[in-house]
Amino acid sequence: MTVNQILSTKGRGVYSIVSTITVFEALRVMGEKNIGAILVIEDGTLKGILSERDYARKIVLKDKSSKKTPVSEIMESEVVTVKASDNLDFCMELMSKRRIRHLPVIENDEVIGLVSIGDVVKAIIEVQKETIKHLDSYISQ
């Protein structure tokens, strides 16, 4: 299964913000959308990603103010991305090695979607269920 297959089920919509807003404003958007990370896109270009983990480690633990700190100060600017044609094993390997939970999907230098660790795990479970179903059918014959 590929990233493209996940996106065809999940959808290609992504939420994004600009790096100049405050962390508090970004968290408000994330709360409204019920998401754990949000992309930072400016002029159509992916500039970074902000996650709840960034907030916890770079604001809360450092006793900074989320209402005064711009997203640009705490966002991850070295974003790990994937292509729509990449397979799920590759995504899992990336997420595990890099200890990340979200992968923006890039095509022709444009963000076309976002997959989370939950999306990937769900898709892998579905593939395994199908494999088990086919094996069970084969054994039963």
UniProtKB/TrEMBL annotation:
Keywords recorded for this protein, A-Z: CBS domain
Organism field: Flavobacterium granuli
SUPFAM superfamilies in the cross-refs: CBS-domain pair
Name of the protein described by the UniProt record: CBS domain-containing protein
Residues annotated as domain CBS: 8-66, 75-130
